[in-house]
Specification:
- With 337 residues, the chain is an all-beta fold.
- The protein is built from no helices and 39 strands.
Length: 337
């Protein structure tokens, strides 16, 4: 069976190549080649059956990345070389006004948002933003005053501006673009019906469910191999429908939602201590610390039945009950007494 890849991180890079791209998937252990369209990666490292790090070759435009195992290519994912993508287009934002203190949540609709590197309000960087798709970005406003243009920047360039007004007055609730309505969601709980009313009447209802952000209570183990590929378990709540798990911003090599309270995770390569977070449609969890460190088993002395301690050499004795053992143990586990 061919390998299968699920994610590229990052999915954009310089036209000159030379940057490292982490490839996640399954069945990657026997990879013999990594291709960017027709060009092979200058080098790559198989860190586990679920993760490869490859050096991108020079290129332009958008290319398809795949891996080859047993002479068969995997599925492909799109990788874009910076400076070659089309400039983004911003069609609408909603709401179009917000608190001068910042912190308002707004939605931008348009095209070409994939790989967005910045969102600004009249030159002031957004407090935060999340690219939901190539056509939608969720944005948190920075502090400001007056009316300013909102722009989105990607490797392909900077979009046109859409006006946003800093005001304490209530913003408009609905904006329609290309048969799409942007609505500001009121606070609520549970599942509720959503309808649209026009002079012609009220539409059929569709369901909308309020989802709370997940909570991460613990992970175990809390340390693993810098090369990645370690298996850990996360315990908490609100994991159903999880869309991502990251280690200090680096996507997990793989994860499986076992239940609303447990996720099995395969670590990506990394260094140092990083926060692990889980993202669902309800938001992103708090972080729990994970430390990348190499663990080496080592010999420790244990007592034989006569009470003697031995550490390096096992010698043959005439008394068969005097056994001398060397145990390979985890350095973090206590010795038996």
């Amino acid at each position: 069976m061919s390998a299968h890849i699920t994610a590229l991180h990052p999915s954009t890079g310089p036209a000159a190549g030379g940057n490292t791209v982490a490839i996640s998937g399954c069945g990657l252990a026997a990879t013999s080649d990594v291709t960017f369209d027709a060009a092979s990666a200058p080098s790559f490292t198989v860190t586990s059956d679920t993760t490869i790090t490859a050096v991108a070759p020079p290129g332009s435009g958008s290319v398809q990345v795949s891996v080859v195992t047993a002479g068969r290519p995997s599925n492909s994912l799109t990788y874009s070389y910076a400076g070659s993508a089309e400039s983004p287009v911003l069609k609408a934002i909603a709401p179009q006004a917000g608190d001068p203190a910042g912190g308002s949540g707004i939605i931008a609709v348009g095209s070409g948002f994939t790989g967005a590197t910045a969102v600004d309000f009249g030159g002031t960087a957004a407090a935060d933003f999340t690219v939901a798709s190539d056509t939608i970005i969720g944005i948190t406003t920075p502090p400001g005053a007056g009316t300013v243009p909102v722009r989105v920047t990607t490797p392909g360039g900077t979009s046109n501006g859409e006006s946003f007004t800093y005001s304490a007055s209530l913003p408009p609730k609905l904006v329609a673009v290309d048969n799409v309505i942007l609505a500001v969601v009121p606070s609520g709980t549970g599942t509720v019906p959503v309808t649209v009313t026009t002079p012609a009447g009220t539409s059929n209802p569709v369901r909308f469910t309020y989802v709370s952000a997940p909570v991460l209570k613990a992970i175990a183990p809390q340390a693993g191999d810098p090369a990645g590929g370690s298996d850990i378990i996360a315990v908490g709540s609100g994991f159903t429908g999880a869309t991502a798990v990251d280690f200090g911003g680096t996507p997990a090599a793989d994860f499986t939602v076992a239940s609303d309270t447990i996720i099995g995770i395969t670590t990506p390569p990394g260094t140092g201590t990083v926060p692990v977070r889980v993202t669902t449609p309800g938001g992103t969890s708090n972080g729990e610390s994970f430390t990348y460190r190499q663990r080496h088993p080592r010999c420790r002395p244990v007592r034989n039945r006569n009470g003697a301690r031995h550490s390096h050499h096992t010698r043959r004795h005439q008394q068969p009950r005097a056994l001398h053992l060397h145990l390979m143990v985890n350095p973090d586990e206590p010795l038996p007494t």
